[in-house]
Amino acid sequence: MARIERVSVSPKFSNLVQDSRMVGEYNDCAVKAIALVCDVPYAAAHAALQKHGRTTRKGTAFRAIRMAIGDLGFWLKEWSSTDRRMLIETYPGVHKNLRQITTHHPRRFPKAWAPLKDKRLLLYVPKHVAAFKDGEVHDWTVNTAKRVWMVWEVWKK
Prior knowledge:
Layout: H1 11-22, H2 29-38, H3 42-51, H4 62-71, E1 74-78, H5 81-88, H6 105-108, H7 110-113, E2 121-125, E3 128-133, E4 136-138, E5 150-156
Antiparallel strand pairs: 1-5, 2-3, 2-5, 3-4
Helix pairs in contact: 2-3, 3-4
């Protein structure tokens, strides 16, 4: 399979980066991911995480992410290893044998990911979380092959 072209980050993510810079924030991938999957402004996601113990300019504990998403009117369902395997099995050719999903798979295998277009997902990679919404990864990892350890589907209550 040919190498996929590099792309710019999505406009939605780019706007959140600007919001983050305006308040002097960094290490805030969870804030951006929650803002994206819950359709709330950066400030609302930031406040929801702070309420549950997130310290400014520090990483975010998963418990705080789960609680903040609940406060914003959503709930999480973790994908099992079987769910992830079933998605990988829809990949073309020898790619069906891959062991893990990566952050660039939605672009590399668009037909396999097309049925997930209406889903909101949090993709957990080591020490980072990215948002998948509207059929694309909204994060700086879109051009990298970061291995996804956990996938959480976000549902409206």
